[in-house]
């Protein structure tokens, strides 16, 4: 059985009287003309927030479901070819000597 939390569950000690007092204070501060605009703005903000949260959740699910088919193929290793028969192969130069033909 799943439990449904009321919207103000983070305020466990607030009752109906307190909610009425808060709404009256908001009415006094913003006036009767601004209340519909305020409620409309809050509704739009909540809708955008829920849409953004849903988009992020879908993106995570898509990324988790996306599995690569196979690892990327490595290029074949190049194997050095032996020199042709009869050719002269010079040993590598000792470290610190300038590159180029040796005498």
Strand and helix map with partners:
Layout: H1 16-65
Structural account:
The radius of gyration is 37 Å and the shape is rod-shaped. It has 103 residues and is mainly α. Helix content is 49%, strand content 0%. The chain has a domain at 32-67. The chain has one helix and no strands. The protein has one helix spanning 16-65.
Quick synopsis:
With 103 residues, this protein is mainly α. It is 49% helix and 0% strand.
The fraction of residues assigned to DSSP E strands is under 5%
Helical coverage, percent range:
40-55%
Number of helices: 1
Give helix and strand order, one letter per element, not per position.
H
**What's the total number of strands?**
0
The SS-based structural class is: mainly alpha
What does the radius of gyration come to? 37 Å
Largest sheet: none
Write a concise keyword list for the protein shown above:
103 residues; mainly alpha; 1 helix; rod-shaped
């Amino acid at each position: 059985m799943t439990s449904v939390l009321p919207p103000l569950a983070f305020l466990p000690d607030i009752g109906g009287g307190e909610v009425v007092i808060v709404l009256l204070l908001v009415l006094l501060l913003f006036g009767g003309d601004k209340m519909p605009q305020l409620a409309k703005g809050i509704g739009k903000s909540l809708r955008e927030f829920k849409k953004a949260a849903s988009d992020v959740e879908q993106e995570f699910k898509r990324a988790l479901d996306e599995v690569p088919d196979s690892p990327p193929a490595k290029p074949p290793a190049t194997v050095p070819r032996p020199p042709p028969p009869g050719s002269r192969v010079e040993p590598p130069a000792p470290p610190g000597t300038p590159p180029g033909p040796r005498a």
